[in-house]
Amino acid sequence: MNVPNKITISRIFLIPLFMVIMLVDFGWGEMTLLGAEMPVAHFVAALIFIFAATTDWVDGYYARKYNQVTNLGKFLDPLADKLLVSAALIILVELQMAPSWIVIIIISREFAITGLRLVLAGSGEVHAAAMLGKIKMWMQIVAISALLLHNIFFEMFNIPFDIIALYIAAFFTVWSGVDYFIKNWGAFKNSK
């Protein structure tokens, strides 16, 4: 297994750590940072989430720079992203920090695209993420990070940046999903 794939797998292993810190009450108390009041656990979990999300860029950069792009990596990388984003969004709904309907839209798109990728992979076609899918991913990361950090900085100005970012992420999620289906519909039909 090459280095980029190991980095991707490390992202998957950070998900349970993130979940435990968000969901178990360690009694770490509260903190105020740049106008936002939040549990210390949310701040620590946000740092883990942001670090894990950053590995998405690192593994892709390393794979392209050292010509280590593999079909396994093309499959694992978006899977790791989907697991990380889904875990975070479900926890945010559980803690009533994100509207469930947006989370349902985002996760439904991820399941649909993953299903299409599996069908295409079964017929020997593996597609890397398109630019629109990458924009979608980074908008989701920005939105989730802002929610985890309780709208840090923007709270001082009473601007709901976290929710605005989540709406923008939902928009790009739907747009990139439709784009992916349109671009791969022919291959999907031929895979039967």
In a nutshell, what does this entry contain?
By secondary structure, the protein is mainly alpha-helical. It is built from 6 helices and 2 strands.
Descriptive report:
There is one protein chain. The radius of gyration is 17 Å and the shape is globular. Helix 2 (40-65) packs antiparallel against helix 3. The chain is built from six helices and two strands, in the order αββααααα. The chain has 192 residues and is mainly α. Strand 1 and strand 2 form a beta hairpin. The two termini are 31 Å apart. The protein has a two-stranded antiparallel ribbon. The longest helix has 30 residues, at 161-190.
Key features of this structure:
single chain; 192 residues; 6 helices
Please give the structural blueprint:
Layout: H1 3-23, E1 30-33, E2 36-39, H2 40-65, H3 71-94, H4 100-122, H5 131-148, H6 161-190
Antiparallel strand pairs: 1-2
Helix pairs in contact: 1-2, 1-3, 2-3, 3-4, 3-5, 4-6, 5-6
- Low-confidence spans: pLDDT under 50, at least 5 residues? none
Helical amount: over 70%
The percentage of residues in β strands lies in under 5%
The end-to-end span amounts to 31 Å
Mean pLDDT, all residues: 91
Structural class estimated from helices and strands = mainly alpha
The 3D shape can be described as: globular
Largest sheet: 2 strands, antiparallel
Following the backbone from N to C, one meets helices and strands in this order, namely HEEHHHHH
How much is the radius of gyration in Å?
Answer: 17 Å
* Strand order in space, largest sheet: 1-2
Please tally the β strands and state the result.
Answer: 2
Annotation field: number of helices: 6
